[in-house]
Each structure stands twice: as C-alpha cells, then as structure tokens.
Write a structure and sequence with these properties.
The protein has 107 residues and is mainly alpha-helical. The protein has five helices and two strands.
C-alpha cells in the first residue's frame, strides 16, 4: 500500500519530481539520512500544492506508519471512485460498452 501511495505521488507530480529530491547534494542522494528520517520521523515525499485534497489525503493514508491503519485496495478503489465521480459498477459497465461501440463505429 505504501508503494501504491508513492505511485500516486508520482502521478500527482506529473513525474517532474523525484521523491526526496531535497536530499540531493553534490549530485548524490543521502540514502542513509533519508532512511533514518523515514523510519524515525515519518518522512514522506512532499506533496505538490496543487494536488487535489482528496487525492493527497488518500496518499497520506497509504503512507501511514502503521500498515494496519493503511487502507486496503478495496477501500482505495472506493475512494478513487468517489474522487473520479465513478458511480456503481453497472454504470461503469454501461459506459465502457458505449465507448466500445463508439470505437467500433469509427473503425
């Protein structure tokens, strides 16, 4: 789940940033310093200011120190569905079917 949070962070930065890029010095990253800060002080990558609050909240939940407090993938799917305004599964199937029909008509 933590790694999924990192992937979401990468999406939110549009891949323009590296995690912990503030720890680059002289062209090298301070790996040991970052590890200690992650473990001892809950250091996490900096979220962009323009990241939607719902998405940043999800990312932060994925990064909780206690893995048992992190959301399950089922919960993540529900949260993402709300963020993306995706309704129930039947509507999704209907929308996908309609899009497939459009694509087939073009071809």
């Amino acid at each position: 789940i933590y790694s999924f949070g990192i992937i979401c962070w990468e999406i939110s930065t549009l891949f323009y940033n590296f995690p912990f890029d503030e720890f680059f010095e002289g062209g090298k990253i301070q790996v040991m310093k970052i590890r200690k800060l992650i473990i001892n002080e809950d250091l996490r990558p900096t979220l962009p200011k323009d990241c939607p609050i719902e998405f940043s909240d999800l990312i932060k939940q994925c990064w909780l120190k206690d893995p048992l407090k992190r959301p399950s993938f089922n919960e993540i799917c529900k949260i993402l569905s709300k963020i993306l305004n995706i309704s129930d599964e039947e509507n999704n199937k209907k929308e996908i079917k309609e899009e497939m029909i459009k694509i087939n008509q073009i071809n």
